[in-house]
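ingest -> validate -> predict -> emit
validate: passed (alphabet ok, no gaps, 263 aa)
predict: started
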Amino acid sequence: MKLDLLKNQWLEIVFEGRNKSYGAYDLRKSITKNTVRAFIIGTILFGLLVSIPTIMRLIPDASEETTIDTKITTVKLPPKEKPKDPNLPPPPPPAPKVDQVKFVKPVVAKADEVVEEIVVIKELKDKNIGKETIKGDPDAELTIEPVGTGVAAVVEEDNTIYNTAGIEVKPDFPGGIDKFLAFVGKNYQAPDEEGLKGKVYVTFVVEKDGSLTDIKVLRDIGYGTGKEAVRVLNKSPRWTPGEQNGKKVRCTFSLPISIQTAE
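emit:
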């Protein structure tokens, strides 16, 4: 019979008829398992030892310095503007295009008391006259100041409504007040009511253009008499407006209209 040493058959043959409770039997019985286990553990440890250099190369060295290649561009900053000193005098005006000669007012004095020499007329030819002598710059730009730099006066329109009692020129209907009363009598249509008698009081404003506005009925006698008065006044031709201080103004006007129907 062929024996397999990796199995426990040989152990049974060796300890046949012997005391198996002895420790040698148990040690030999588990020797295969212990051998395989030791082989696996040894293989793992060997693999770890062999791979240690490779693992060390893969771990980065924290002590190494990291360098960054950065390109630095030089930026030229504008010069810092210095704050202006308010106490400094203003810069002198640019030189005029034409030479300027200082004007010296002639004063009657003795010859030895003359301080400044008066410029003769020949020296004033083709030159400007100013408070001081300035050499002209032929390359200077010729500028002309605009005429009328002042603010134009604003005249507010007079929209005051004047009373006819205190106005210089009262408003008037073309042809006079009698023509106006005739116009009202011709166009006014009295209500169809027997024995109606009374007066309708109306007021209106004669505008600057002669038109009638703001027509109001102060009192009427009913039956649509006030409404009819408003209708007639709205048809009125333009009046001659009133005047105050030589200007046309707005003016109020009162009008009573007498109504009497047949009984």
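Strands lie at 100-102, 128-130, 161-162, 197-206, 212-219, 242-244, 247-260.
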